[in-house]
Amino acid sequence: MLISGKADYRFVMLFILNLLLVVMSEILEKLSEAVELGKVDRKAHYPPHLKGFEGSYEITGTALDAGITPGQILDEALIPTMERVGRKFSEKKIFVPQMLMSAKAMGAAMVQLKPYFISGEIKTKGSFIMGTVRGDLHDIGKNLVSIMIEGGGWRVIDLGVDVNTARFLRAIEENPGSPVGISALLTTTMENMKETVASIKEKFPGTLVLVGGAPVNERFCKKIGADFYSPDPQGAVNYLSMIQSKF
Ligand code: B12
After folding, report:
1. Res 22: pLDDT
2. pTM, entire model
3. FRET partner for 7 with CA separation of 20 to 30 A, picked from 22, 78, 132, 173?
């Protein structure tokens, strides 16, 4: 009887756990759909067939309430969805306006997630300069890197998008010794990244330069004389902690 009671308990717990996992994956699926279709929030009129429905802003709130971690929301819903959006754009199944609406929906989700990545820790590690390279308007990846680095205890000086070399140099001059992060999402703007890194290294040889963005890789990083490449923000956070511990 006791054994059967224990077995029953285990069965019920397993059942609840499975149910919870199903609910969680349904929420993440709904969020992916909202981002892919560019549904920002309940008030948004776009897309017309979803008028009045929840958007990525509300669904992200529901996901957090359901106990899904911000990391899971990013890795299992938001980032793969943006990759899917990019693929559909390549296949000409969607066009720039739809890609832009997806970016807006991702931004609305990030508003909910940001507080979870900022630890509230006193920013004592120094300043970190961050920007998207000249000619490039993509800022989702840059913003994510900024949020995670800020969460790692750094004061982030975000220069925004389409940042030319002179602007990066001025920021380094104003914040001597600060490491710099540069993002590029287009194969065409990788050239501008190369030019910016070369100027930084020429004028401020001691400055550490971190590079990233979908088309960037380790080989390109080495080739242009940057110090560090990471495919994700956490790599940058770890690298900065490692560098800082050496001082
Ligand atoms: C959203 C989007 C847009 C939006 C951007 C809105 C915004 N506010 O950012 C809009 C609509 C404006 C846009 C415009 C264009 N886009 Co666009 N866009 C995308 C899309 C779908 C998603 C990008 C994104 O946000 N990904 C999610 C983030 C989280 O990922 P991420 O940026 O890679 O960042 C991560 C890492 O790379 C890393 N990281 C990023 N930066 C850094 C920096 C450092 C230091 C470190 C350590 C790490 C790091 O950390 C991040 C988190 O993991 C991509 C597709 C794709 N697969 O990337 C196309 C894509 C990048 N776009 C593309 C193109 C062609 C364009 C346009 C030229 C289209 C056009 N004809 O006008 C324009 C260019 C405008 C310009 N001058 O910049 C192409 C680029 C092709 C190429 N190889 O060059 C892509 C790949 C789509 C495709 N498959 O064809 N785009």
Report:
1. 94
2. 0.91
3. 22
User: Is ligand 1 within 6 A of the CB of residue 83?
Assistant: yes
Distance CA 156, CA 128 (A): 5
Q: How far is the CA of 15 from the centre of ligand 1 (A)?
A: 41
Q: How far is CA 163 from the centre of its chain?
A: 19
Task: Give me the domain span that covers residue 144.
Answer: 127-245
Question: In a mutational test of the pocket of ligand 1, which residue from 32, 78, 99 has the highest number of ligand atoms less than 8 Å from its CB?
Answer: 99
Asked if 106 and 140 sit in the same domain, the reply is: no
Interval between CA 77 and ligand 1 midpoint (Å): 17
Q: Is 218 in the pocket of ligand 1 (CB under 6 A)?
A: no
Which of the four pLDDT bands, split at 50, 70 and 90, describes residue 198?
A: very high
Mean pLDDT of 86-102: 95
For residues 144 and 215, membership in a common domain is answered with yes
Q: Which helix (H) or strand (E) holds 236?
A: helix 233-245
User: Looking at ligand 1, which atom is closest to the CA of residue 235?
Assistant: 47
Which CATH number does the domain housing residue 192 bear?
3.40.50.280
- The letter for the amino acid at 66 is A
Pocket test for ligand 1, best of 134, 138, 200 (most atoms within 8 A of CB): 138
- Asked whether 237 lines ligand 1 (CB < 6 A), one says no
Measured CA to CA, the distance from residue 200 to residue 119 in angstroms comes to: 31
Question: d(Cα 27, Cα 54) in Å, to the nearest integer?
Answer: 12
